[in-house]
Design a protein that fits this description.
Rossmann fold, 183 residues, 10% strand, mainly alpha, 3-stranded parallel beta sheet, two-stranded parallel sheet, 5 strands, single chain, 2 domains
Length: 183
């Protein structure tokens, strides 16, 4: 959830809209760590609408960005994420749902929700694929210089891979078999 929320820090041109269905309800308020990331982002305090698209304020905020591609996640895959994703698709948006930034109670419910979204034309993808799709090229900006530290923070497995590569380059050693790999 925090890694998904931090996408706007890695890609500062992304518009960020924060929302919650009822901050005093069962899902509670947005985590302070997320609010602290975006002190000037619009925070749409919905009045209980489960599907964010049913909120006129949220809909207006999305339309005000002028963007037609939306990256999203929600607390519950089969409700928060799926309802909004399918509504956005019905309105003609290209939607990218981060499968790692929401969850549900069983694998079967998750799979059903992801299948329903995909049948509606939603791109159900991983956080890493979103990052790489936004970056497009390690040489760009943001590119390796900006994204590797972000990955080290939010995807430590990839950070360790990059650290291992750096160490091999710095000490100039290859283990048996590495020299035989194609470049």
């Amino acid at each position: 959830m925090l890694a998904h929320s931090a996408l706007g820090l890695a890609f500062p041109t992304l518009p960020v809209i924060l929302t919650t269905s009822a901050s005093t309800g069962p899902n509670g308020p947005l985590p302070q760590e997320i609010l602290d990331m975006y002190p000037t982002a619009p925070v749409i305090a919905r009045q209980g609408e489960v599907n964010a698209w049913d909120s006129p304020e949220f809909r207006a905020a999305v339309k005000a960005t002028g963007k037609k591609q939306i990256i999203l996640a929600g607390i519950v895959t089969d409700v928060c994420t799926a309802f909004l994703a399918r509504s956005l698709r019905a309105e003609g948006y290209s939607v990218w749902a981060n499968q790692e930034a929401s969850g549900t109670v069983t694998k079967e419910i998750r799979d059903l929700a992801n299948d329903q979204m995909m049948r509606a034309g939603v791109n159900v993808v991983s956080l890493f694929s979103i990052v790489c799709d936004l970056m497009r090229d390690w040489r760009s900006s943001p590119g390796a210089k900006e994204i590797l530290p972000w990955l080290d923070t939010y995807m430590p497995v990839y950070g360790m891979l990059a650290r291992g590569h750096r160490a091999a380059v710095e000490n100039g050693t290859l283990i048996p078999g590495e020299a035989d790999l194609p470049l």
